[in-house]
Amino acid sequence: MKKVLFITYYWPPSGKASLHWPLQIIKHLPGYGWQPFVLTVNEDTFSQKDESLLKEINPQLQVIKTKSFEPFGLYRKFTGKTKDEQLIASETISRTNKSLTHRISIWLRMNLFIPDARVGWFFSAVPAGNKFQQKEKFDAIVSIGPPHTTHLIGMSLSKRNKIPHIPVFIDPWVDIAYYREFKRSRLTLAVDNFLEKSVMKNAKALVFVTETMKNDYEKKYDFINGKCRVLYWGYNEEEFLMEDGIRNMEYGSKEAGEVLLHAGNIFDFQNPKNFWKQVKKEIEEGRKIKIKFIGTVSPGIKNEIEQNGLMPFTEYAGFLPYDKLLRELMNADYLLVCATEKRHVPGKLFEYLRTGKPIIAFGDDNEEVKRILKMTNAGMIFSYNESGKEFFEKAGQLKTDFSVVKNFDRKNIAGMLAEILSNLQRSSVGGGSHTVVTL
Hints:
Elements: E1 2-8, H1 20-28, E2 34-41, E3 63-66, H2 72-78, H3 89-92, H4 100-112, H5 122-136, E4 140-145, H6 149-161, E5 165-169, H7 186-202, E6 206-208, H8 211-220, E7 228-230, E8 258-263, H9 273-284, E9 289-294, H10 299-307, E10 314-318, H11 322-331, E11 334-338, H12 348-355, E12 359-362, H13 367-376, E13 379-382, H14 389-394, H15 402-405, H16 410-427
Parallel strand pairs: 1-2, 1-4, 2-3, 4-5, 5-6, 6-7, 8-9, 8-11, 9-10, 11-12, 12-13
């Protein structure tokens, strides 16, 4: 069996949503002839913990963990937070907070930590990875970013040991959406672009989780044409099945009225202001709608909720373990998702699709999300300046096509990654086609 090393910063018991892709892909890869190994950080000090995810790890899987210098302890001290105070992603980059310490901390983050705040992991991960390679003799390396520091680690190990490197891009690198509202110096951008380009040149294949992001990178770097692949984020079918294999479409008791739920982080730049006004109007006209947020909510979103008089109808549930999150999704009436930009297909969208609940999405010029919702007949998408009124009128007509949704099962996606790995072994990436989930 061929061996592949995965480099991922996020790993259980971290509760970071972006670990679900590598976690489940790794779980299914042995069934396709590839034995995975993992290089990760000793502890993710930023994200909430989710101990329930530990059960997803095969006891036979070899996982190497190394220490990392993390700036978050300094950030807590600088901004007046206690040592054990949980940091909230949407607050750390919020523009609503005008304090001097907050603005200075953002500038430092955007300009001194290249490519990201986890760059301190590079210095322990590379020696550990080289030692790991000497023992196991890997046939390929797969790095998961962000944080894009993982790609620098992967490139270093690849060059040193002459092993094919496949970076997986869950989000863009240099021009990731939340950088756009903040000033980065010319020197910072020059260094960051150099690092990104170096990874692109060294990679034997590149994986993107959206077609739009792949196309965008191919325009930026024409030399990567022919070695780019698309593997969607997907969902885990196993999580939605009862022990007897029957689809479980309800989980426990349901709340009274209509629950509109958003899961995951939601940032200031994902604020559908007119939608909140429409929700209030629907309530005033007699609908019993409750807004429920699971995960972190930015100050700007909270302010908008309050200004529209929606506080009595809103619940902030905070972080929930993954299994409990799925129960909440199944018991909701409507699911809200906000795309960051036109290249962004939110990971939660695929779990939303699998629930069969009507989905309302917001995203400017996001044709990819629109296409997926249309193919599955699962929801509607609006631009951020729209109210979404039409959704409330037509939600009852949305009947999800599960025959399409099942293509996004991560077991299928693991098979596609295995095919990419095997093709590298056979021909060192020949041809110009790219792999996509076939719908």
